[in-house]
Amino acid sequence: MQKSRALLQAVPTMDIEHINQIGNMLADLSARTDALRGYL
Questions:
Q1: Which residue from 40, 21, 39 is spatially nearest to 29, judged by alpha carbons?
Q2: Is 0.70 surpassed by the pTM of this model?
Q3: What is the pLDDT tens value at each position of the chain, 40 positions in all?
Q4: Rounded distance, CA 19 to CA 26, Å?
């Protein structure tokens, strides 16, 4: 338990803007994937 707790403290936390940006990118990729499935 000591190692995992220390590891979690060493990892920097992401800010909300970065998390939202990743979410938007994933949503865009999902939409593109759905559009490409129509061609296959």
A1: 21
A2: no
A3: 455 665 556 556 768 888 889 999 999 999 999 999 988 7
A4: 11
